Amino acid sequence: MSSKDGTDVGGVGAANSSAPNLCCFDAPVLPDWVLFNVPHDSTFIPPLERSRFLLNDAELNVELLRMTDHWTFDLFAEGIPERRVLRSPVSRLVVDVERFEEDSLEIMASRGMGAVYERTSDGQQLRPPLPAAQRQELMNTWHLPHHYRLTEAVQRALDDHGHALLIDAHSFPSRPLPCDWDQQPDRPDICIGTDDFHTPPQLADALAGAFGTAGWTVKLNSPFAGALVPMRNYRQEHNLAAVMIEVNRALYVDETTGDRLPCFASVAKAIRNVILSGVRVLNLRDEGGFHD
Ligand SMILES: [Zn+2]
Questions:
Q1: Where do the domains of the chain lie?
Q2: Mind listing the pLDDT tens digit for each residue in 210-262?
Q3: CATH label, 31-284, candidates 3.40.1550.20, 3.40.50.150, 3.40.630.40, 3.90.1580.10
Q4: For residue 150, how far is its CA from the centre of ligand 1 (angstroms)?
Q5: Which of 25, 37, 102, 111 could form an S-S bond across to 265 if both were Cys, CB 3.0 to 4.6 Å?
Q6: Who contacts 140 (Cβ-Cβ below 8 Å, separation ≥6)?
Q7: CA of 261 to the centre of ligand 1 (A)
Q8: What are phi and psi of 82, to 5 degrees?
Q9: Per-residue pLDDT reduced to its tens digit, 24-42
Q10: How far is the CA of 52 from the centre of ligand 1 (A)?
């Protein structure tokens, strides 16, 4: 794996999937070999884990509001078959499936925010220090199954089609959080994260160009860098393309509430059309695989 980067729920959250489906646009159809990783849109916190947090309900709601990539499932992957969407069922405050399994590999672990957070986004204590067995239990329950499903879905697409594109789907707050490494205030509308091996330059160029045409500012690998790839395939599988797309939350949600803005459907449609532009570039390269 390689990658970096609240809804008001009264303490124990509900996955966004339980909310009414408000997405009602005609999304372009993407090929079966396009997969989505959606690690951060859930607000669900199992009661036992909630009871272990050191935050009161108001503090927890603030943290969920800051840390959740609100509605990113709906934004990127609503209507796409379940087998092609790898969505964490729990909040990243329970387990962050985007972070490396081993803290020794995870840069955010130095801020108490490895795969299992002990600190909040502003450095407060989220949980008491975790016994190793308790951490492992959380990893076994949420982190390992997510990566198993991710690896299997990628392999299935490679077996069936000979190639695959994995899109790592995120959003980010319009102002840096205290935990963010990049504290520059001038954040773009769209951040595209790339990997030297797995992101064909033509794909990054096509996505950046299409987002620009849609009227949005774009940066590559800023304020977040990289693109998630299953460990099995990492820098091994030439026919697995990967890219991260991070959307500035100010484009589509009220950041003080996590509620969708009226323009949500049009933003989602624009994102899908941009992704289709990228897919078309890869299609042109199909015969020889994604790499020259
Ligand atoms: Zn995210």
A1: 31-284
A2: 999 999 999 999 999 999 999 999 999 999 999 999 999 999 999 999 999 99
A3: 3.40.630.40
A4: 16
A5: 25
A6: none
A7: 19
A8: -55, -35
A9: 456 778 999 999 999 999 9
A10: 23
